[in-house]
């Protein structure tokens, strides 16, 4: 127990930023999918239930990737790089909307944090 507490005290700020951004992004998908499922069932409208379940499943998959990253797994780091690269790509496609610009800035910051020297050194020290 003591070892994990010491590990979290020495996490670089870039590592923490990328992890929290991943938690927030995955949580949004889970929350949206869950609320849509509940509202669809309460309104007896089952035609969009599959789409809502897909959003919740994507959110759960993203959460697994974030937990892998937080546990210093290489696949979690690569997964977050891939997710943030896709966010940047899709935000660049629809750059005329302000929501896309906000997502672009945050995801680009997360990509920078993931690829920073301090994050890479921290990930390598954990193996």
Sum up the structure in keywords.
127 residues, mainly alpha, 6 helices, globular
Q: How would you describe the overall organization of this protein?
A:
- This protein has six helices and no strands.
- It is globular and about 50 Å long.
- The protein is an all-alpha fold.
- The model has no long low-confidence stretch (mean pLDDT 89).
- The protein has one domain (14-125).
How do you describe this structure in short?
The chain has 127 residues and is an all-alpha fold.
Structural class: mainly alpha
Mean pLDDT value = 89
Helix content: over 70%
Whole-number tally of structural domains: 1
Write the layout of secondary structure elements.
Layout: H1 2-9, H2 13-42, H3 49-70, H4 74-93, H5 98-115, H6 117-125
């Amino acid at each position: 127990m003591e070892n994990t507490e010491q590990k979290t005290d020495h996490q670089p700020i870039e590592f923490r930023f990328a992890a929290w951004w991943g938690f927030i992004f995955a949580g949004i998908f889970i929350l949206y999918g869950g609320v849509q499922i509940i509202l669809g069932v309460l309104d007896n409208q089952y035609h969009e239930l599959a789409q809502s379940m897909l959003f919740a499943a994507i959110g759960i998959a993203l959460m697994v990737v974030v937990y892998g990253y937080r546990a210093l797994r290489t696949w979690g780091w690569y997964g977050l790089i891939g997710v943030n690269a896709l966010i940047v790509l899709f935000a660049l496609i629809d750059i005329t909307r302000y929501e896309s610009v906000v997502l672009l800035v945050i995801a680009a910051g997360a990509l920078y944090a993931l690829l920073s020297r301090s994050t890479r050194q921290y990930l390598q020290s954990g193996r």
